[in-house]
Amino acid sequence: MRKGVFEADGAGLYYEVRGGGPALLMISGAGGDAGYYDGVAEILSDAFTVISYDRRGNSRSTGRSGTPMDLAVQAADARALVDGLADGRALVFGNSGGAIIGLTLAALHPEAMTGLIAHEPPAVNVLPDGDPGRGFFAELAALYAQGGAPAAGRRFAETTRGEGTYRWPGELWKRFLGNQDHLFGTEWSGFAGFRPDETALKSAPFPIVLGAGAEDRGTYYARPSIEIARRIGAPWAEFPGIHMEFLRDPARFAAAVRVLATQLHSRDGDVPALWKGAAQ
């Protein structure tokens, strides 16, 4: 694994690169960083060049500010990493808020992508009017205004199925807690206002797959994936486990990502270099 800091529009983005083969950019969700994918990235590095990073203002990256951040900035950062580390094009996997960023990247910078796997984007604005899930972001914003990051963070954990049933790596947990004010004070409004650009996603020149975990049926962050897939005519896939299965059981989650990423890559008719000539 090699790591470094990539300069992108006034921020230094900490990144890690593992393996060889087609580029696979993995975007973490709210409060997270490259550490979310340590286990998965190691497993997939035998077939992919796996790029993970700390989003602007999070953990080991710089660029933190007290003003709301537009999703276009998050997408531009991802695009800059693809340009700088993957020769301009990559498969993209995103979980949760990272899936929202992936969908934004697909709409704004389709030329940078060869495929997208969007796992459980909490795009609550696509849920029906009156659905209680639509109030999630407003509820936590109010809690943050009243009780700060601890109050909002506790409620966030309560709404995420499976949290508390396994142990996070210690350093990752410390970084996650250090990101809470940035999440609720800077990033939250962008995630809250997200509505997928259905026209752009329908016309994307690469395959898009939406998906959710088998144990997350009915949650506010799993149901939007089904609705987005329906609206844009994209396939939907069931993943194993919970929202953060990549932390609870990296091997199990990596197996699912491997299948989808390989299929998405090969749909363009290309074959990873390490497989070429293997039939002889």
TrEMBL record:
Q: Which UniProt keywords apply?
A: Hydrolase
Domain AB hydrolase-1 positions: 22-188
Spell out the Pfam families in the cross-references.
Abhydrolase_1 (PF00561)
What is a GO molecular function of this protein? Answer: hydrolase activity
Q: Which InterPro entries match?
A: AB_hydrolase, AB_hydrolase_1, AB_hydrolase_fold
What protein name is recorded for this chain? Alpha/beta fold hydrolase
Please tell me the species this chain comes from.
Streptomyces hokutonensis
Read off the lineage from the record. Answer: Bacteria, Bacillati, Actinomycetota, Actinomycetes, Kitasatosporales
